[in-house]
């Protein structure tokens, strides 16, 4: 059984597709579907189910022909739509900076975008080579641009690519700009009719040099620099800029995980190029063990996120060993370092991150803001924002410099923190224990349910809305529903909370768990070993309760 309307839509798309390879790919599926091949018909149905929608500040999806994928036709429509929206909003002729990472298709998508924007009368400027997303975000403000485009799928699987758009303030776009661009894209009648011009500028290395110099100045000139660091770029584009920043700041060159140092669009050593995914950090952990390093730093492929690993000492029945820090742990460590360095202003995080930052800001007399998930909101949390983070390894340690998460400046500041603690005879694990003793142990965890059918996520959210659990961990629950503003449920109970939401970038449903457990004897511990033992006891209690909490929320969501 065929679908005549779908087949006509496919044929029309093929006739207008400027990429011969994509057109041939669709033609092969169309021919098979016309001959009765139901799998080909289903594949076309998926590819033409609808256009990619602007989600987290732009487009993201699988590399494949058709409107529901990342390909030349879709990218050209996006660039033309962006040009039309900018013109309509009074920015005609302004500067637009375009960057790209090392994924399949990224460079050609970026060059097409620059050519289309140039043809539309804009001063289009293409970054000189494969570069991290933070360099593009920096360049928007550096050049006084009206917009920026970064072609990247960040930490998504190898088969994906994406198109991230920045507004003229250097932050990721938010409503209504995203909806206006999407409407302008829909108004494009023919891809083949979109004009391209060669009059765009390919920038030189001076923009990279300016970023490196600015980031290097974030650390104090008199702070310690003695530190042995292992770094992995996870097959992304971050390694050269990380090395340059560390050198400019006076740190020794990190030891690179050689197998992952160069850009590789197939991400050959990892299942998912995401530091949070199981196995992604195995090579870095092994190298750190061999070299007896002080610190592991990992960036995701476009280097806007930062993960950190440290060696924890033996405590009780737990042996010494390396562990990657949770996003919230690094988030409060960086905030603590900035607070102790006298950085004044508003500190911000999201509704799914640890509540410890709120307590820290209040005690220090600083402003605090809590936003929906995503740096497009964090970066606009307050006019005097000096720090923002989200638990998904995103940190803005200098939002006036880069108005987005920046895994490279975060890496430099955590190196400064670690080196300073080392010089004082302390360590990151010990500082975490001191914070727990002072503010209570804020234990966080996350459940992530990856699905193939998005209807499963819809059903889970519906179950929690219509029949939320009356108790969690035996404590009465108060439910806050953020719909229609956001598809988010918050379940609060004495000493803890659970936040449940669909992922904005992947087919996942996520539950964020937090428990706040007092450490009554922490501040009276007489030495570092005693403090670690007291906090370790609270951590063991938290682990057991988080596991129980996770099981309870999974059952309530129908995901057990």
Summary keywords:
globular, 39% helix, 4 domains, 560 residues, alpha/beta, six-stranded mixed β-sheet, 20% strand, 22 strands, Alpha-D-Glucose-1,6-Bisphosphate, Chain A, domain 3, 17 helices, five-stranded mixed β-sheet
Average pLDDT? 96
Helix content: 25-40%
Query: What is the total number of structural domains?
Result: 4
CATH topology of the largest domain: Alpha-D-Glucose-1,6-Bisphosphate, Chain A, domain 3
What about the largest sheet? 6 strands, mixed
| The CATH H-level homologous superfamily of the largest domain | Alpha-D-Glucose-1,6-Bisphosphate, subunit A, domain 3
Structural class assignment: alpha/beta
Basic shape: globular
Strand order of the largest sheet: 1-5-4-2-3-6
* Name of the top-level CATH class of the largest domain: Alpha Beta
Distance linking N and C termini: 38 Å
Q: What is the strand tally? A: 22
Our estimate of the beta-strand percent is 15-25%
The Cα radius of gyration reads 24 Å
Please tally the helical runs, counting DSSP H or I stretches of 4 or more residues. Answer: 17
**Low-confidence parts:** none
CATH architecture descriptor name of the largest domain: 3-Layer(aba) Sandwich
């Amino acid at each position: 059984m065929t679908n005549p309307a779908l087949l006509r839509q496919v044929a029309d798309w093929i006739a207008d597709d400027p990429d011969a390879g994509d057109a041939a790919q669709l033609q092969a599926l169309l021919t098979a579907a016309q001959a009765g091949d139901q799998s080909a018909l289903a594949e076309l149905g998926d590819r033409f189910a609808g256009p990619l929608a602007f989600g987290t500040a732009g487009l993201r999806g699988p590399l494949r022909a058709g409107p529901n994928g990342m390909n030349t036709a879709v990218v050209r429509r996006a660039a033309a739509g962006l040009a039309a929206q900018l013109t309509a909003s009074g920015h005609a002729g302004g500067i637009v900076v375009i960057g790209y990472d090392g994924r399949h298709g990224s460079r050609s998508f970026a060059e097409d975008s620059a050519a289309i924007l140039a043809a539309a009368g804009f001063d289009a400027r293409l970054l000189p080579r494969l570069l991290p997303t933070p360099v593009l975000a920096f360049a928007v403000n550096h050049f006084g641009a009206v917009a920026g485009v970064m072609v990247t799928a960040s930490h998504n699987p190898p088969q994906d690519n994406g198109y991230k758009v920045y507004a003229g303030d250097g932050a990721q776009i938010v409503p209504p700009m995203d909806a206006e661009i999407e409407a302008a894209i829909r108004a494009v009648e023919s891809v083949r009719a979109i004009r391209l011009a060669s009059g765009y500028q390919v920038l030189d290395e001076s923009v990279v040099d300016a970023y490196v110099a600015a980031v290097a100045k974030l650390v104090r000139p008199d702070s310690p620099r003695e530190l042995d660091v292992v770094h992995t770029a996870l097959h992304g584009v971050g390694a050269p800029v990380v090395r340059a920043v560390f050198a400019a700041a006076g740190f020794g060159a990190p030891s690179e995980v050689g197998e992952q140092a160069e850009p590789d669009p197939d991400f050959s050593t990892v299942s998912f190029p995401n530091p949070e995914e199981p196995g992604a950090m195995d090579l870095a952990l092994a190298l750190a063990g061999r070299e007896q390093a002080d610190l592991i730093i990992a960036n995701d492929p476009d280097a806007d996120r930062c993960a950190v690993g440290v060696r924890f000492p033996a405590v009780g029945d737990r042996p010494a060993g390396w562990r990657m820090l949770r996003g919230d742990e690094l988030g409060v460590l960086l905030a603590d370092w900035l607070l102790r360095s006298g950085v004044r202003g508003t500190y911000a995080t999201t509704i799914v991150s640890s509540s410890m930052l709120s307590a820290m800001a209040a005690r220090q007399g600083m402003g605090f803001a809590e936003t929906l998930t995503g740096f497009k909101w964090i970066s606009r949390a307050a006019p005097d924002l000096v720090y923002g983070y989200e638990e998904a390894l995103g940190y803005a340690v200098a939002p006036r410099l880069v108005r987005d998460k920046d895994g490279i400046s975060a890496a430099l500041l955590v190196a400064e923190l670690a080196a300073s603690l080392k010089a004082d005879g302390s360590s990151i694990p010990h500082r975490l224990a001191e914070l727990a003793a002072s503010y209570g142990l804020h234990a966080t965890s996350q459940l992530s349910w990856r699905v193939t059918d998005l209807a499963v996520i819809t059903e889970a959210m519906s179950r929690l809305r219509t029949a939320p659990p009356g108790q969690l961990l035996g404590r009465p629950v108060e439910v806050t529903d953020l719909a229609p503003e956001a598809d988010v449920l918050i379940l609060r109970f004495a000493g803890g909370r659970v936040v449940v939401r669909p992922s904005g970038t992947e087919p996942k449903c996520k539950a964020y768990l937090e428990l706040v457990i007092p450490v009554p004897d922490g501040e009276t511990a007489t030495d570092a070993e005693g403090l670690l033992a007291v906090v370790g006891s609270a951590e063991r209690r938290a682990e057991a309760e988080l596991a129980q909490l996770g099981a309870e929320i999974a059952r309530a969501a129908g995901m057990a």
